[in-house]
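In this section we turn from sequence analysis to structure. A common task in structural bioinformatics is to predict how a protein folds when a small molecule is present, because the ligand can shape the pocket around it. The inputs are simple: the amino acid sequence and a SMILES string for the ligand, here zinc ion. Study the lines below before reading on.
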Amino acid sequence: MTQEFVVHKSVIHGKGVFALRDFKPGEIVIHWDTTRQISRAQFDQLPENEKAFIATYKGKLIVQQAPAKFVNHSCDPNTRVKNFCDTAIKPIKKGDEITTDYRDDPGSELDMSCNCQTQNCTGRIKGKKQTV
Ligand SMILES: [Zn+2]
């Protein structure tokens, strides 16, 4: 399979994931690697900086692997999580950074500042903190 994205430095935060080809809305961009899962008790013991790499989806706590773990938050994202895949919700051009909305994560306890620089930016990413 040809490489469809590359990980390098992002203006949003740290490293980001960038498309190496165009994606149409509805196309799967990144398949999550869901082989590493942890329990809620294990999650509670993790240091804060590692909690950021845990995705909660459909009641599972998934330790995100590269490249999915490098996908940055945007308040105006170009992908959404669907069946453990980051799926394009708008046309993505080659070279665009792949972004998702962390606030969609139902178990998210995030509270961090946002630097996505989109028009919709709220300046802060705050999880909904629902129970999973
Ligand atoms: Zn933002």
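The longest helix spans residues 40-45. As an exercise, try to locate the residues that line the zinc ion site and compare them with your own expectations.
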